[in-house]
Amino acid sequence: MADVEELKRLAGxxxxxxxxxxxxxxxxxxxxxxxxxxxxxxxMAEEGLEIVGVPTSLATEKLATEVGIPLVVLSExxxxxxxxxxxxxxxxxxxxxxxxxxxxxxxxxxAQESSAMVVVADDRKKVxxxxxxxxxxxxxxxxxxxxxxxxxxxxxxxxxIRMAGDGPVITDNGNMIADAHTGPTISDPExxxxxxxxxxxxxxxxxxxxMCDAVVLAGSNGVETVINPNGRL
Length: 233
Ligand code: 5RP
Description:
Blueprint: H1 4-14, E1 24-27, H2 33-47, E2 52-55, H3 58-66, E3 82-86, E4 89-90, E5 96-97, H4 104-112, E6 117-122, E7 135-139, H5 144-155, E8 158-161, E9 163-164, E10 167-168, E11 176-181, H6 189-197, E12 202-205, E13 207-208, E14 214-219, E15 222-227
Parallel strand pairs: 1-2, 1-3, 3-6, 6-14
Antiparallel strand pairs: 4-5, 5-13, 7-11, 7-12, 8-11, 9-10, 14-15
The protein binds ribulose-5-phosphate (5RP).
């Protein structure tokens, strides 16, 4: 049986089939989609693929530059053809939890600007109810303790500021990440998203609802592409 790293590589590469010359491509963040970025760079160098990319994090910007993908900023273009990104969980309605890599704000902006979203994942990410993976919420540093308390009351669970060593994780946007330990209880992710976004100290929440059009899923039986019947692909 293939190991997880190999599954991620297979899914990441397979998703490149959705990318054609001339496309403007959102480049996600994480250890799965990094293989997509590397493969797109290879196809540009060796097969004449011509694309421009919009990265969803400083880490992806660095990788895309290294592999030779020309980058543009959102203000220079009128939307993207597609974004390919990872996910921490997805359910049977293709609703996602994202933000395990702390890039959820830029990821969500890029997804919102894209005509289609393809998720690359290994089969550990498929769940029946979202929430076993702690829900990432980007919060403004000003009053983050109060925001954490409010989130904890709203969601009725433990919420903690994500740490890196002695200090908090600081996102590419200068914010912090609060992780909400809801457990697998998020049965109505749309209302959970709306409720969280009403809190003033919240910048964005890692629930990506009604955005994902397909999942390229790698498991021990190989790689399969699951198309969202209610999606745009
Ligand atoms: C980053 C993300 C990632 O896409 C998500 O955490 C999945 O990452 P990986 O492919 O490394 O498991 O949302 O903010």
